[in-house]
Amino acid sequence: MSPPTYDRSDPPHDRYAGEVRGHRAEAVGAVRRFVRAGDAVVHLSRSGPSEPGPFEPVVFLHSLGTDHRIWDAVAARLPGRATILLDLPGHGLSDAPREPTTIADLASVVLATLDVEGVRRATIAGLSLGGQIGLRLALDAPERIAALVAMDSGAKLGTEADWNHRIETTLRDGMEAAAPEIFARWFHPEFASREPATAHGIRTLLARTPAVGYAACCRALRDEDLRSRLREVTAPTLVLCGDADRSTPPHEVRAFAAAIPGARYEEIAGAGHQICVERPEAVADAVDRFLGALGPEA
User: Fold this and answer.
1) Using alpha carbons only, how large is the chain's radius of gyration in Å?
2) Please, where are the H alpha helices in the chain?
3) What gap in Å lies between CA 263 and CA 73, rounded to an integer?
4) pLDDT of 298
């Protein structure tokens, strides 16, 4: 079954939710569940072909302050591929990370989740925080990573001063107070007026993120710097970036891609930082083309 088509005149909230409720449930058959991954309980959604034996799903890792649901509209457009969408520690319905936590710790939780799910190798597709976790996995567990898709991400994200400010604001005032400043940098300037219901929903998702878990992940991002190791990446890599991203600007993401051997870089037109929310069809197409070019095992 082909993904549903729509045009800009469709009611945004109906189009965005309907494609997931209808197309995904009918063609992909998502199953959501909780698993114990090491010391943490992780919430995930798994869908796609369920052929016996080893397989290589696409594992989607979300950005800071969201959860696995930002990938629903992308996964809906990949009905022929097995997918695992998970809530990272401190987000959604997964446990809060231990304190202090690092990007390597978060990557370990992802690997432990894949172990529980019986997944030996996978493509990691991550946005922002999720992209940096994917990069860490590609460096520290290359035998487990079939390919890497890093979206609006980098080897070093933000500055120490910026992260300290965000941590202090979040813990002092709460996520509801911190959300407007964060949210303002996430989308194309026209997105909120074009799709007000979706924008409202994503802002609510951000505001309801547990402050302690959010701050712990901010510290992990503050302290991670993988720039000196980019030449070590051996996994086939696709790097995507929204052309209107103000959090990780295209020129920075392009330079990040250029430092990874053989990496391919593409910009997603008409999108800011949360490209999987704004342009799910473009993201799904880029991922599918990339993996298709790698061969049937990707």
Assistant:
1) 18
2) 12-18, 25-27, 72-75, 103-116, 129-140, 160-173, 175-183, 191-194, 196-207, 211-223, 250-258, 275-278, 280-294
3) 25
4) 63
Judging by DSSP bridges, how do beta strands 145-151 and 40-47 pair with one another? unpaired
Neighbouring CB atoms inside 10 A of 228's CB total 10
Backbone angles phi, psi at 34, to 5 degrees: -110, 140
Q: Which domains does the chain have, with CATH numbers?
A: 16-294 (3.40.50.1820)
Q: What is the pTM of this model?
A: 0.89
pLDDT tens, position by position, 150-200: 999 999 999 999 999 999 999 999 999 999 999 999 999 999 999 999 999
Question: What are phi and psi for residue 287, nearest 5 degrees?
Answer: -65, -45
Q: How many CB atoms lie within 10 A of CB 47?
A: 24
Length of the chain: 298
Four-point Cα dihedral 141, 236, 254, 258, nearest 10: 90
Kindly tell me if the per-residue pLDDT of 268 is higher than 90: yes
Name every residue whose Cβ is closer than 8 Å to that of residue 104 and which is 6 or more positions away in sequence.
Answer: 136, 140
Q: How many CA atoms lie within 13 A of 29 on its CB side?
A: 7
